[in-house]
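In the design runs reported in the main text, the only information available to the sequence generator was the tokenized backbone. The following block is the verbatim input for one such run; it is reproduced so that readers can re-run the procedure and compare outputs position by position.
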């Protein structure tokens, strides 16, 4: 129908609607005018058989729903960045939550079934076997954060270690003498790298408590630190939510911030600006991490080489807490 309306061959119509670059611009314009006039909608299943593309990209988040849809703005920021980039490229985002071995197996089956053109992996824990399994299936894969173990998969990350190191050095430059850290999970590369940054910069015996990037874990870790090290005068927390939890504990026990204890977080999300007092923090470009993940995956899916690691800068943002 479109071919006869446009006065071209069916093969030409097929090439235009499937995005081929081999059609002359004037013919492409004629075909698209006919498509609009007739209200034609391509059969996606048939189109996928011809192009071997689905125009769908999966973002697999290795966290439970309760974590993704919590008060942590980080997840929404990355997902928003991914969505913006894929929308601009005319691709569909498929969001998959995969926090267990059973759900990982479901992701493998889904990707192997040809339902997506590639997979972005986000919030990876430990030496997760899923990235390597997907790669062995021939599926384009890009990770958020350096995969632990011996993986050579491409990844996008922020300069977590350097950002943490700069934050701790700043505390010592401000005259603080005993700087503790509330570290992130030991099975996540962000937690590992930010702890390493602290260890590089600390000038005394390390003072460490662990959290899981949540506000509650930061409050509990701060309580433990004060009990064991009542003379501490500064804390670097590996996320803004944990730093905000630490601020709550310090208020409850009557410690003034920053007069008695200086506090620095990591992320620079909305939590930092509205904390009491406003939080000094290490800014990472959260939305740009998502955009970069999507750009790298689109290049990989198109058969192009990608830069890896693709590192984004961090920056210390000074507010009232330190």
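Verbatim output:
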């Amino acid at each position: 129908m479109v071919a006869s309306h446009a006065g071209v061959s069916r093969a030409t119509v097929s090439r235009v609607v499937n995005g081929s670059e081999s059609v002359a611009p004037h013919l492409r314009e004629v075909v698209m005018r006919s498509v609009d006039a007739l209200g034609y909608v391509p059969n996606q299943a048939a189109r996928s058989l011809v192009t071997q593309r689905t125009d769908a990209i999966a973002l697999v988040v290795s966290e439970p729903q309760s974590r993704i849809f919590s008060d942590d703005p980080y997840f929404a920021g990355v997902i928003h960045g991914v969505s913006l980039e894929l929308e601009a490229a005319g691709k569909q985002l498929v969001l998959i939550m995969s926090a267990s071995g059973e759900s990982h197996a479901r992701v493998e089956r889904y990707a192997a079934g040809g339902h997506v053109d590639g997979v972005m992996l986000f919030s990876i824990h430990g030496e997760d076997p899923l990235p390597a399994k997907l790669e062995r299936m021939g599926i384009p894969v890009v990770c958020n954060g350096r995969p632990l173990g011996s993986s050579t998969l491409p990844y996008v990350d922020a300069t977590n270690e350097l950002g943490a190191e700069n934050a701790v050095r700043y505390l010592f430059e401000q005259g603080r003498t005993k700087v503790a850290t509330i570290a992130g999970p030991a099975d996540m590369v962000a937690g590992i790298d930010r702890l390493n940054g602290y260890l590089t910069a600390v000038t005394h015996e390390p003072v460490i408590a662990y959290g899981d990037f949540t506000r509650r874990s930061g409050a509990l870790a701060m309580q433990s630190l004060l009990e064991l090290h009542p003379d501490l005068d500064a804390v670097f927390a590996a996320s803004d939510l944990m730093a905000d939890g630490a601020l709550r504990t310090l208020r409850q026990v009557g410690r003034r911030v920053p007069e008695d204890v200086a506090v620095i977080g990591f992320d620079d999300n909305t939590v930092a600006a509205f904390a009491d007092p406003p939080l000094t923090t290490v800014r990472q470009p959260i939305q740009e991490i998502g955009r970069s993940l999507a750009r790298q995956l689109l290049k990989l899916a198109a058969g192009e080489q990608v830069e890896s690691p693709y590192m984004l800068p961090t920056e210390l943002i000074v507010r009232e807490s330190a």
